[in-house]
Amino acid sequence: MGKKKVLNALAWKFSERILAQMVNLAISILLARLLSPSDYGQVSIVMIFISIADILVNYSLSNALIQKKDADNLDFSSVFYFNSVFSVLIYMILYFCAPGISSFFGYDGLTLVVRVLALRVIIVALNSVQQAYVSKHMMFRKFFFSTLAGTILAACTGGYLAFCGFGIWALAAQYLVNPFVDTVVLWFTVKWRPVAKFSRYRLMGLFDFGWKLLLSGVMDRVYIELKSIIIGKFYSSVDLAYYKNGQQYPQVIINNINTSISSVFFPALSNEQENKEKVKNMLRAAVRMGAYVLFPCMIGLAVVADNLIEIVLTDKWLPCVPYLRVACFTYALYPIHTANLDAMKAMGRTDIMLKLEIVKKMIGVILLMAVLRHGVFMIAFIGIIQAVISIFLNSAPNKKLMGYGYWEQLKDILPSILRGGIMGLIVWGVGLLQMSAIVEIILQILAGILSYCILSALTGAIEFTSLLKILVPGGKRK
């Protein structure tokens, strides 16, 4: 696969994520001002179960289709029909479990919300095969338009309902409309259609790759949502809202950068899975670029957190600032995790991924049980400890698979850590000046961007010149 095609796909995917997240961020700010933390907390409780269901119908077989080099229409059609039936079964389970979920958390009104939001599972199941087809064929321009349409219409729907006083249903509508519109747009813009054939043999072949990936994904999602369940059950929905909102803004950056790199990186790696040297070079480039872009963003966001929350969400959301800062340092390492796992996945080593996930989640549960009664902040803080441990665990197998272990990876990301740290000190220094919050945060952002660019140029960062070539047409390397 040519470098130009990969860069073009990355540009489209990154543009899609940037525009989608900008719209989502704007509507999130609006809804946070109009709705109460309790509304957010109750929807967060429902989304615990919807997110796990999404993984069940949208993770293993879709990735198996992308990883299989000779996947044809029969493969895609078999997965499409299986996902359709399986998603209806999952919906029925959620439908009948809704009263129990509502009773467990002590919110009588959640039953109907669960039953309505669970429809998302069926929509996502239909959409997953379309997305796998688009990703496998590197048609990321299609994603740009479908995601943009879904995001804008969902934002308008949620905003309108919030203004009309529908409360929790404004958030529910936003979560439903987005994947529905995305699915409809892809259906009309992508030529793929399921054929009237189903192959159990093909499906089992894909499942042989995907079941380990599915278990890994489910364990990861269940563990993430276990924290939310504990906070929602043993603390309060308001505490859960602060915790979730604190994670939201780092996630905006993560979704833009990590999803863009991973969505393009995995299919590109899958096409080169037999060439270990090429896979290593691509993995190294992804690790370096992810660290170069993400570290300054996360450090900068952590420094300006107080002013940011006060300006965009008002004082009522200031209790989420500590969780936001913890999330910044937790998520800073995510692109490195993802790149290592994508390399294993592309080479068909989902068995290693499953073993790693079991070990990581055993450590995570032990840490979670240790801090369970020590407050929501400690529940959030163990994420940083897990992220550091995961770096060593996820990179260790790639030392044997392609000769790229954690010491070499640490050497590749260390310059970005140092540049980001120096930039953070400069941004913090600007914050010591006595100015209004708006003026201060604008100056902090400008100082951060300028100082990081200067540091990159002075240290000869390869990633800096590579980005210049993409962002500035005709740009030349120095």
Task: Characterise the protein shown here.
85% of the residues lie in helices and 0% in strands. The chain has 478 residues and is mostly helical.
Give the arrangement of secondary structure elements:
Elements: H1 3-34, H2 37-58, H3 60-67, H4 73-105, H5 110-117, H6 119-136, H7 140-163, H8 168-189, H9 200-234, H10 237-271, H11 276-303, H12 305-312, H13 321-331, H14 334-346, H15 350-371, H16 376-402, H17 406-431, H18 437-458, H19 462-471
List keywords for this structure.
478 residues, mainly alpha, 85% helix, globular
How many angstroms does the end-to-end distance come to?
27 Å
- The 3D shape can be described as globular
Strand content: under 5%
H-E order? HHHHHHHHHHHHHHHHHHH
Averaged pLDDT: 80
Rg on CA atoms, Å: 22 Å
In short:
By secondary structure, the protein is an all-alpha fold. The protein is built from 19 helices and no strands.
